[in-house]
């Protein structure tokens, strides 16, 4: 029996920490479906996340995110990449803990800033670059740290290992906890 039997596996962490890439690889290893909550929110809303933030605000986005998590938590044997702030709400954390295993991916601020700078569709980081971007990331990480510490497993994705190696290392660690 494995620690994930009858549960979902949730990847949480800051934006650009590699949740989707590692989540997809883990799903492939387990033969389970993979879902990204950001994609599911976009489907539910019928528009891009950047449009939700722009037109409806962050609170509307967080409400949609909670609805998506409620739907997912009712299912089993899924690998899910969570939006970076999905764990902020107590209701979401309770759902996730009750229905699955939480894995937190982390990376140094400098690496996160480099990855985020390469993608222009991050609403919470719009129009930021260089030291300003790093300062915003560091502040948000400090705010979210107590939530990230609640993970069952924490993995550093600093680019030393490729996604396949990182996922294999995590999988082996999880298997050793049996």
Describe the SSE topology.
Layout: E1 8-13, H1 19-30, E2 34-36, H2 37-45, H3 49-56, H4 58-73, E3 79-81, H5 90-99, E4 100-106, H6 109-117, H7 130-148, E5 153-156, H8 163-176
Parallel strand pairs: 1-3, 1-4, 2-3, 4-5
In short, what is this structure?
54% of the residues lie in helices and 13% in strands.
Notable traits:
globular; 178 residues; 54% helix; five-stranded parallel β-sheet; alpha/beta; Rossmann fold
Description:
The structure is a single chain. 54% of the residues lie in helices and 13% in strands. It has a single domain (8-176), classed as P-loop containing nucleotide triphosphate hydrolases (Rossmann fold). By secondary structure, the protein is an alpha/beta fold. It has eight helices and five strands. It has a five-stranded parallel beta sheet with strand order 2-3-1-4-5. α1 (19-30) packs across α8 and α2 crosses α4.
């Amino acid at each position: 029996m494995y620690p994930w039997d009858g549960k979902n596996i949730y990847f949480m962490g800051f934006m650009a920490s590699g949740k989707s890439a590692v989540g997809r690889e883990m799903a492939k290893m387990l033969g389970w479906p993979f879902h990204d909550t950001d994609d599911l929110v976009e489907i539910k809303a019928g528009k891009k996340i950047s449009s939700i933030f722009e037109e409806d605000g962050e609170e509307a986005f967080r409400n949609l995110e909670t609805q998506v998590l409620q739907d997912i938590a009712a299912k089993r044997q899924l690998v899910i990449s969570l939006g970076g702030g999905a764990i902020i709400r107590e209701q979401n954390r309770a759902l996730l803990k009750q229905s699955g295993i939480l894995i937190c991916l982390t990376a140094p601020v400098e690496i996160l800033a480099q990855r985020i700078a390469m993608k222009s569709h991050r609403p919470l980081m719009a129009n930021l670059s260089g030291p300003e971007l790093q300062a915003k990331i560091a502040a948000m990480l400090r705010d979210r740290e107590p939530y990230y510490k609640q993970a069952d497993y924490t993995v550093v994705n600093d680019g030393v290992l490729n996604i396949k190696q990182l996922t294999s290392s995590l999988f082996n660690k999880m298997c050793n906890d049996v």
